[in-house]
Amino acid sequence: MDKNIDITLKVWRQKGPKEKGFFETYQLKGISQGSSFLEMLDVLNEQLINEGKDPVVFDHDCREGICGMCSLYINGHPHGPDTEITTCQLHMRKFNDGDTITIEPWRSAGFPVIRDLMVDRYAFDKIIQSGGFVSVNTGGTLPDANAIPIPKHNAEMAMDAAACIGCGACVAACKNGSAMLFVSAKVSQLALLPQGRVEATKRAKAMVAKMDELGFGNCTNTRACEMECPKGISVSNIARLNREFIGAKLKD
């Protein structure tokens, strides 16, 4: 049975991208262990508003582990201490009475802080725009997609790669701030399907170039990204991205 606990929060506060940030400490009493982590932050903000203080800014949307917006670094882990979940799926039963919880935004040159715990993840959108799509002539002469035979193994790997929700936990977990797991997942989900082969060479080069341009670091195979990914995206996708990229360069 869930019980109520008292906790101490150390929350990163920062008024803007160019402002100096700092940790601020808050005390919360009687938090139900059955509540989610974001519900706990809602309680904190209600308390701050009642005290006439500015609430803590944090990102969220679906609260169902689908959108990836709830990007919080909790006690040294992206999305918190549980495995293969997003922050909105983390429950307070993972914490004990009297615990101190440290909450930070993603730390990466590619994800500048907007305010407090909210970061600008538009860089991922720019990477997708550079090549993470398929251009199709819809003139009516193409066969139905489900009429094209695809090996079951390839279809399953493509679906596994497509599970990436673009939350940025891989970047936050990486000591280099690398976006390779994200980029490789988006390249793999198309590279494994016949519909994605037409633009394969252009896609790999363009997305890697955009990733480098936006300030993300290089991969050094520590596999921290795979360990912290809420959807369990495999680093084998990075190997596939490297093959796609080298193959594209050789065709230049």
Structure explained in plain terms:
α5 (180-191) packs across α8 and α6 (200-213) packs across α8. This protein folds into 2 domains: 4-115, Beta-grasp domain (Ubiquitin-like (UB roll)), CATH 3.10.20.30; 122-136 and 147-251, Fumarate Reductase Iron-sulfur Protein, Chain B, domain 2 (Orthogonal Bundle), CATH 1.10.1060. It has 8 helices and 7 strands, in the order ββαβββββααααααα. A hairpin with a 2-residue loop joins β6 (113-115) and β7 (118-119). The termini are far apart. The chain is 34% helix and 14% strand. It is α+β, with helices and mostly antiparallel strands and 252 residues long. The protein has a 5-stranded mixed beta sheet. The model has no long low-confidence stretch (mean pLDDT 94).
SSE layout:
Layout: E1 4-13, E2 22-32, H1 37-50, E3 73-74, E4 77-78, E5 100-104, E6 113-115, E7 118-119, H2 122-131, H3 152-162, H4 169-173, H5 180-191, H6 200-213, H7 224-228, H8 236-250
Parallel strand pairs: 1-5
Antiparallel strand pairs: 1-2, 3-4, 3-5, 6-7
Helix pairs in contact: 2-6, 3-5, 5-6, 5-8, 6-8
